[in-house]
Write a structure and sequence with these properties.
InterPro entries: CSS-motif_dom (IPR024744), Cyclic-di-GMP_PDE-like (IPR050706), EAL_dom (IPR001633), EAL_sf (IPR035919). By secondary structure, this protein is of the alpha/beta class. Helix content is 50%, strand content 21%. It has an 8-stranded mixed beta barrel with strand order 12-13-15-16-17-18-19-20. It has a 7-stranded antiparallel β-sheet with strand order 3-2-1-7-6-5-4. The structure holds ligand C2E. Ligand C2E binds next to strand 13, helix 9, helix 10, strand 16 and strand 17.
Length: 571
């Protein structure tokens, strides 16, 4: 997406740049126009990072890339790093808060359940009883059963006459509760009038029963909440009104200083319908709340990661770019050589043809394997140029030997070559000029390439109609093996070295090989085993498919043109 935006920006910039350039020629140049020109040029240059831009010189592009890699890129990595760390920090805090909240909420649920069952039980037991010593003794006994209740009282018509400590004389008026839930439970917080003697406590009432909540219970709960930096609120479910709160939310350094609102994370659990909800809230810190040393360590790590990523990308790009640039130059100067590896009849060892293999020796990079530069050439759209160079060189260097001994030469091509009518014409013309018969030229197309598209099929048919042969290369490495076998658009099939390597082994590939042998015996095409290195492989191939051909170090390594001519002559 940024690449796409940049491409569009780049295109517009280049257009504007040309307009500005033309204006510069006719106007006396004001300073601001020079500034605009410089900015547009920079933008066009950056856009060329995302596509092959032929207008910019390689060196300029590389300089722009370097500037980008060591300015914008590390900053982007730094920002991403900080975002990821912030996000991770937040997730971690949520986990910790969730764990503490679950413990507290479970405790609150236990307490609520105890009050609920006490109110039900005691209301049934003590409705309309008078405050006799026996009643007081029974209340005392009942009190022992409850962990969170400190005192039980009995009231008649709003007057508390009896408690588990004894008769209340004179009876005390039970005040109107501060909150009444839908199921008729009344709550009073910090009530100091009922027990007298300067004791303030939370009171719960329903029917004739008055329960005095143990202050220790609330104290323990508050301490728990404070320790975890949380805030516990009792909320009325229907109205959402907060009726009791313990603990406070900690202040955040930067946010509060700047007066920004902080993100409060909350978990709520409600009792049976119409009762109370308990909410646990916490402020989620972010990296700005870290102590100064933590912030410094984090920023340094982020910058370090950004720079490390820049360096890695720089070295990777430098290697790629330099190889890319040098390959372009090598193609322009046709700075390659060819070697020819003989292909032989397996049973007799007689040479029947050669495969032309490209070699590139760069003054800086040394010998670069075709396995490296051919895929690079394919990615950068230079592979077709290579095919033309190889075709021209091979036919010029080896046609005399081919004609003299009626041999063929195999040339590696890519699907784009087969699709390209101009290449087919070019090849026909060359073959004509050097006086070869088209059947002495084999075009190898790798099975890994997704070559089964319609236009490739058409190209293959055209080539075969003109007398050229088509070989399916590296058979066994792709995923369209069977479809290739059943198509009739080729003349030879080259079995990849990894299948040949399975000969005489106990591997899974050996099973593939044995199944393949059954299929290959039925096929009326030339079969070439690649990478034949050992005598037992030769014996196996000769026994299983006597008509098969072989190519490999057991017979010959790739040879230069002079050696290739002399081995055929000496045979
Ligand atoms: N270990 C071992 N290796 C053996 C043996 N016999 C042959 N080889 C190597 O196996 C490769 C066979 O070529 P390929 O399958 O077409 O695979 C080729 C082909 O896909 C590509 N390539 C080479 N030349 C060209 C070219 O001119 N054009 C294109 N498009 N691709 C080429 O590069 C690949 C590698 O080429 P090379 O490095 O020349 O490697 C060659 C050859 O040197 C053996 O007994 N043992």
């Amino acid at each position: 997406m940024p690449g796409g935006v940049c491409l569009i920006c780049g295109k517009i910039s280049k257009k504007l740049l040309s307009v500005v350039k033309s204006q510069l020629r006719v106007l006396t140049t004001p300073g601001w126009l020079l500034g605009v020109k410089a900015s547009l040029f920079r933008c066009a240059l950056i856009s060329s990072l995302f596509k092959g831009d032929t207008d910019m010189s390689e060196a300029r592009k590389w300089r722009a890339k370097k500037r980008f890699l060591f300015s914008v890129f590390p900053l982007c990595v730094f920002v991403v790093f900080m975002c990821v760390v912030s996000w991770g920090y937040r997730v971690l805090q949520q986990r910790v808060i969730d764990n503490s909240a679950v413990i507290i909420l479970n405790r609150v649920s236990e307490v609520a359940e105890e009050f609920r069952s006490a109110l039900n039980h005691l209301n049934n037991k003590y409705s309309d009883v008078s405050c006799t010593p026996d009643t007081v003794r029974q209340l005392k006994n009942d009190l022992w059963k409850y962990e969170f209740i400190r005192e039980i009282g009995i009231s008649h018509h709003g007057l508390m006459t009896c408690t588990s400590s004894g008769a209340v004389l004179p009876p005390v008026q039970v005040p109107v509760p501060q909150v009444v839930t839908q199921i008729g439970t009344g709550l009073m917080f910090n009530n100091a009038s009922l027990l007298g003697k300067g004791i303030a406590t939370d009171v719960i009432t329903r029917g004739d029963i008055v329960l005095f909540v143990s202050p220790m219970m609330m104290e323990t709960m508050d301490r728990n909440v404070r320790e975890h930096g949380l805030m516990l609120s009792l909320v009325q479910e229907e109205t959402g009104k907060v009726i009791r709160q313990s603990g406070t939310l900690p202040v955040g350094r930067l946010y509060d200083r700047l007066g920004l609102k902080r993100h409060v994370y909350g978990i709520e659990r409600c009792g049976p319908k119409g009762s109370m909800c308990v909410r646990i809230s916490a402020v989620l810190n972010d990296v700005t709340d870290l102590p100064a040393w933590g912030l410094v360590a984090l920023v340094s790590t982020g910058l370090g990661v950004g720079l490390a990523a820049s360096y890695l990308l720089f070295f990777y790009r430098r290697r790629r770019v330099s190889m890319d640039v040098r390959l372009k130059r090598a193609i322009r100067n046709e700075n390659f050589s060819l070697v020819y590896q003989p292909i032989v009849r397996t049973i007799t060892g007689e040479i029947v043809g050669f495969e032309a293999l490209i070699r590139w020796r760069d003054s800086l990079l040394g010998d670069v394997s075709p396995d490296i530069f051919i895929p690079l050439a394919e990615q950068t759209g230079q592979a077709q140029a290579i095919t033309r160079i190889v075709t021209k060189m091979a036919l010029r260097e080896i046609s005399e030997t081919l004609k003299k001994h009626n041999l063929f030469v195999s040339i590696n091509v890519i699907p784009d070559d087969i699709r390209d009518v101009t290449f087919i014409d070019y090849l026909s013309e060359l073959v004509n000029v050097v006086g070869l018969s088209p059947h002495q030229v084999v075009l190898e197309i790798t099975e890994r390439a997704n070559a089964s598209t319609e236009d490739v099929d058409v190209g293959m048919r055209v080539l075969r109609n003109r007398g050229f042969n088509i070989a399916i290369d590296d058979f066994g490495t792709g995923y369209s093996n069977i479809s290739w076998l059943t198509s009739n658009n080729y003349d030879k099939i080259k079995i990849d070295k990894f299948i040949t390597d399975a000969i005489g082994t106990d591997s899974i590939n050996n099973k593939t090989l044995m199944n393949l042998i059954v299929l290959l015996r039925e096929i009326e095409k030339d079969i070439v085993f690649e990478g034949v290195e050992h005598l037992y492989q030769v014996h196996f191939i000769s026994r299983e498919i006597p008509k098969a051909f072989s190519q490999g170090w057991y017979f010959y390594r790739p040879l230069d043109k002079t050696m290739a001519a002399s081995v055929v002559a000496s045979h």
